[in-house]
């Protein structure tokens, strides 16, 4: 850069640069339009240099930009993990605090009950009676002996679907049930509320609802398949409700357990038959009692409800496995049947949730691994067939979506590369995930093979639409098919060979492409034959002659030098040379597209193309009167029969692995052109 340019750059980069003042000063000092044009050119040159330097800096620091972005991504992931850990620790601390508070409350309650046992229960019963007098339609609630009030208060009920407020209610928590009463708009005397619902403490689960402004201080009562959401006046009252509900449910379980332990076991001895005093061998058959009083069994249905609500599928299946292991060798008594009925209902609900997780309507991001959680739990529940069906449907929808979202590029080969990469990578990942998820279920593998064939059909539909329906050239179609074959071979690493399926689905389109291009070559050959003058080729320049020699060597004709003369002349007709190049190109593209099912199609196409050239040479020999031209035609015929056709037969046999018998018969059965020393012809 010149000194003037450096000075101008420093002036423009200065901190106190004023554009208006600079333009005003420049216009005053310039002599005319020419000076302004020169100054404009300097500024434009400076702008171009600045832009070029900026591009160089961007390219220079491009890798640093990528590494910085990766570091930011890693940092974001670590911050998310740290936030998750802090949230878990906060939850643990809150659980410990609640446990300590409940312990303190329990000890205080025991002391109060020890000091005033009768008075406390009587006061609670009187309070409940007084409150229930204000509720319309619940006179029979106090008929249950030992029932008393634990807690009560006003709540607001919200709709579960749209979170809109429904009504104001008053809840009465008793030692064995929960009563929900609605407010009466028109009070009648002492009656304030109307009976709405009564829930046994064993029939529902309590779930805390996270605060999400403006929806705050809420908790949910789950009575599968239904649920209700209530809102307390503030966080303190909500906390009291959650703690007292949990404590009351636990107290009920403990009380029932103690009651069962205190009851003496009853032997089911039949009394209708008189006992034979002389029958000393008679044995009394007693039904074996299964111990279902353990705390984890009593709370199992409720724990399953909570696990399903919190999407803890692994925890729910672990509980079911634990129960099945415990009841494996136990007799099927009536209490066990009742427990199994409750558990089977939860299993049905859990299965429905897992099925929904695998439905194609859910998000398809994350690849096959995203389905592993739901699939593994369905397999553990003994639903392997359903898990297999849903997994494959999910993956089919994912593959179809990926293909549909693929951007159609202008270049067909580029699009096919992307299409094959997406499809075969997805198929490979799906196969590996399937093998991992259903390792112990060999019966599901046949379903995967059937699914693979249907997925391949979907791929071929998209492939053919872009390659064959758009009338691409035969060379482009051959390259695209070659790419698809190479990707298909990658599946062999997992023992899945879909090459035959791919070929059988493509054979119709490939056959049509070969026949179409054959017709094009035949029409082009006939058009050149109609203008044939049977003259030697003059390529004018050595470069053009060298290029033609190289093309012929690429076609497999190694002795082409003997057909070149002095200067840039070639002792062959333009028609024969063009025909040779076009036919050899067709053969090479046909070998790329070759399937065993297309053997006769390719062979017959080559035979028809060669037959057109043979017939043209034969016709020209019979019709030509000039002896010199007849000698030249014989020379071209010799090149065609003795050089080109053997190369075609050899290349076909190398590419296919079988000899081209039809081409050999065509060459041997054609007329042999011989030229005698006196330049006269004999046609045999």
From TrEMBL:
Residues 255-265 have a biased composition (Basic and acidic residues). It comes from the Eukaryota. It holds the Pfam family Exo84_C. Residues 19-38, 255-277 are annotated as: Disordered. InterPro entries: Cullin_repeat-like_dom_sf, Exo84, Exo84_C, Exo84_C_1, Exo84_C_2, PH-like_dom_sf, PH_domain. Keywords: Exocytosis, Protein transport, Transport. Residues 148-250 form the PH domain. Its main location: other. PROSITE patterns: PH_DOMAIN. SUPFAM superfamilies: Cullin repeat-like, PH domain-like. SMART domains: PH (SM00233). It is found in: Cell projection, Growth cone; Cytoplasm, Perinuclear region. The keyword Protein transport applies. Belongs to the EXO84 family. Component of the exocyst complex involved in the docking of exocytic vesicles with fusion sites on the plasma membrane. This is Exocyst complex component 8.
């Amino acid at each position: 850069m010149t000194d003037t340019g450096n000075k101008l750059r420093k002036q423009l980069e200065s901190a106190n640069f004023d554009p208006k003042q600079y333009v005003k000063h420049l216009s005053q000092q310039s002599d005319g339009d020419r000076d302004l044009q020169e100054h404009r050119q300097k500024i434009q040159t400076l702008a171009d240099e600045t832009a070029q330097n900026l591009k160089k800096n961007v390219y220079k620091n491009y890798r640093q930009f990528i590494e910085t972005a990766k570091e930011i991504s890693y940092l974001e992931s670590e911050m998310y993990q740290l936030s998750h850990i802090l949230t878990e620790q906060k939850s643990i601390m809150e659980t410990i605090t609640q446990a300590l508070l409940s312990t303190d409350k329990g000890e205080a309650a025991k002391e109060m009950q020890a000091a005033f046992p009768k008075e406390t229960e009587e006061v609670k019963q009187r309070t409940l009676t007084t409150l229930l007098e204000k509720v319309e339609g619940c006179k029979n609630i106090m008929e249950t002996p030992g029932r008393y009030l634990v807690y009560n208060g006003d709540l607001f009920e919200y709709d579960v679907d749209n979170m809109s407020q429904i009504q104001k209610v008053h809840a009465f928590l008793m030692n064995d049930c929960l009563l929900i009463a609605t407010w009466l708009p028109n009070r009648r005397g002492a009656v304030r509320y109307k009976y709405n619902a009564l829930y046994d403490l064993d029939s529902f689960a309590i779930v805390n609802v996270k605060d999400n402004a403006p929806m705050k201080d809420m908790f949910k009562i789950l009575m599968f398949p239904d649920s209700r959401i209530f809102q307390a006046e503030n966080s303190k009252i909500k906390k009291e409700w959650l703690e007292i509900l949990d404590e009351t449910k636990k107290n009920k379980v403990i009380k029932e357990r103690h009651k069962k332990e205190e009851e003496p076991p009853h032997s089911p001895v039949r009394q209708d038959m008189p006992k034979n005093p002389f029958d000393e061998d008679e044995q009394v058959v007693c039904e074996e009692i299964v111990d279902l009083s353990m705390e984890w069994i009593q709370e199992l249905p409720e724990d399953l409800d909570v696990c399903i609500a919190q999407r803890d599928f692994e925890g729910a299946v672990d509980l079911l496995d634990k129960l099945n292991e415990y009841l494996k060798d136990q007799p099927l008594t009536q209490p066990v049947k009742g427990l199994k009925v409750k558990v089977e209902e939860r299993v049905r609900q859990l299965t429905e949730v897992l099925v929904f997780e695998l439905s194609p309507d859910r998000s398809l991001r994350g690849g096959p691994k995203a389905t592993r959680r739901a699939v593994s739990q369905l397999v553990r529940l003994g639903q392997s067939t359903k898990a297999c069906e849903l997994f494959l449907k999910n993956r089919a929808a994912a593959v179809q979506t990926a293909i549909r979202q693929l951007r159609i590029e202008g270049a067909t080969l580029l699009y096919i590369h992307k299409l094959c990469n997406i499809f075969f990578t997805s198929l490979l990942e799906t196969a590996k995930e399937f093998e991992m998820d259903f390792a112990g279920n060999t019966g599901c593998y046949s379903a995967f093979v059937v699914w693979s064939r249907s997925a391949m059909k979907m791929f071929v539909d998209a492939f053919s639409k872009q390659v064959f329906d758009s009338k691409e050239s035969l060379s482009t179609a051959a390259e695209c098919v070659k790419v698809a074959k190479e990707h298909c071979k990658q599946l062999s690493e997992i023992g899945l060979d879909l090459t035959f399926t791919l070929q059988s689905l493509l054979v119709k389109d490939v056959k049509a492409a070969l026949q179409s291009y054959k017709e094009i070559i035949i029409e082009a050959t006939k058009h050149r034959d109609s203008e044939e003058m049977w003259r030697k080729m003059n390529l004018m320049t050595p470069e053009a002659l060298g290029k033609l020699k190289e093309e012929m060597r690429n076609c497999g004709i190694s002795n082409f030098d003997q057909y070149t003369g002095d200067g840039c002349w070639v002792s062959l007709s333009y028609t024969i040379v063009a025909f040779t190049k076009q036919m050899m190109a067709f053969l090479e593209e046909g070998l790329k597209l070759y399937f065993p099912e297309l053997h006769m199609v390719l062979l017959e196409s080559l035979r028809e193309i060669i037959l057109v050239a043979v017939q043209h040479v034969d016709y020209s020999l019979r019709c030509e009167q000039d002896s010199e031209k007849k000698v030249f035609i014989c020379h071209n015929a010799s090149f065609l029969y003795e050089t080109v056709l053997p190369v075609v037969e050899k290349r076909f046999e190398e590419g296919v692995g079988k000899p081209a018998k039809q081409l050999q018969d065509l060459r041997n059965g054609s007329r042999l052109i011989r030229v005698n020393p006196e330049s006269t012809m004999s046609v045999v």
